[in-house]
């Protein structure tokens, strides 16, 4: 029997925010749908547009990252495999599902677009700030002169980051 090959690559935009659930063993499973546009010509030569809505499943920490950083409309590139599975509906009938099981999800676009903030929301969003501003007080005092033996205020210290 010949060895099989199952590889899917999609580039499109999220239809809605990713939804993450956890298995009983606390494994994250993210689900979202990617809208993929395609163009084709009909028999009269007219250019037609069509959108395919493709369900994607992402396991583990990559799924949690999808929930954290992707929003409705986010552009993504998904690499994975096609899976067809069946289940029994509550009505007793057998249903079939075709979906992409992602092995890699690449976030496209700029970070600002991926954050889901408009520019006014981004200006009001909380920023990192110092540990003192976050309420840790003076517990994390560090004198810059202690780093790499910088004694003089005019001398630059090599800060290790």
Topology at a glance:
Blueprint: E1 8-14, E2 19-22, E3 28-41, E4 47-59, H1 61-69, E5 75-88, E6 94-107, H2 111-115, H3 119-124, H4 132-136
Parallel strand pairs: 4-6
Antiparallel strand pairs: 1-3, 1-5, 2-3, 3-4, 5-6
Polypeptide structure, described:
The chain has 4 helices and 6 strands, in the order ββββαββααα. 16% of the residues lie in helices and 41% in strands. It has a 5-stranded mixed barrel with strand order 1-3-4-6-5. It is globular and about 55 Å long. Residues 117-154 have low confidence and may be disordered. With 161 residues, the protein is an alpha+beta fold. The protein has a domain at 8-110: Nucleic acid-binding proteins (OB fold (Dihydrolipoamide Acetyltransferase, E2P), Beta Barrel), CATH 2.40.50. Strand 5 (75-88) and strand 6 (94-107) form a beta hairpin. It has helices at 61-69, 111-115, 119-124, 132-136, and strands at 8-14, 19-22, 28-41, 47-59, 75-88, 94-107.
């Amino acid at each position: 029997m010949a060895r099989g090959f199952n590889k899917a690559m999609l580039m499109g935009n999220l239809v809605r925010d990713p939804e993450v659930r956890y298995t009983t063993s606390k494994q994250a499973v993210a689900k979202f749908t990617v809208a993929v546009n395609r163009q084709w010509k009909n028999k009269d030569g007219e250019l037609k547009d069509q959108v395919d809505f493709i369900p994607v499943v992402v396991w583990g920490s990559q799924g949690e990252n999808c929930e954290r950083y992707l929003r409705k409309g986010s552009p993504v590139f998904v690499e994975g495999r096609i899976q067809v599975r069946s289940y029994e509906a509550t009505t007793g009938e057998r249903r079939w599902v075709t979906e992409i099981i992602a092995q890699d999800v690449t976030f496209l676009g700029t970070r600002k677009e991926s954050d889901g903030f408009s520019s006014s929301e981004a200006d009001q969003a909380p920023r990192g700030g110092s540990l003192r501003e976050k309420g840790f007080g003076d517990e994390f005092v560090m004198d810059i002169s202690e780093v790499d033996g910088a004694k003089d205020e005019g001398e630059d210290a090599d800060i290790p980051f």
